[in-house]
Amino acid sequence: MTLDEYLKKNRVRQSCLATLAGCSQSMISLVTTGRSQLSPEKVLRIAEATNFEVTPHELRPDNTYGAEEDDGVN
Second label for 48, Cα 20 to 30 Å away, from 24, 25, 38, 70? Predict the structure, then answer.
């Protein structure tokens, strides 16, 4: 689920989510429109604030956030 979808589905204001995540409303706005790339710390804060309904991967798909790497051994 995207951050924008989460906000709409749960009727949460950007300012409320920003307060929970410890960032600014303008940062949430930039993220929902795809105009900002979040630091790993902010990704985790926002994911936590949504109870992981929006996952770190959905917020920033270019980072694995601790996912185990496939070492090729079965």
Answer: 70
Q: Which of 11, 5, 1, 3 is nearest to 36 (CA)?
A: 3
The more confident residue out of 68 and 58 is: 58
Distances (CA, A) of 13 to 61, 68, 73, 74: 24, 34, 46, 46
57 token code pair: 């991967």
Domains and CATH numbers, the chain: 3-59 (1.10.260.40)
SS (H, E, C) 3-64: HHHHHHHHCCCHHHHHHHHCCCHHHHHHHHCCCCCCCHHHHHHHHHHCCCCCCHHHHCCCCC
Instruction: Please tell me the pTM assigned to this model.
Output: 0.80
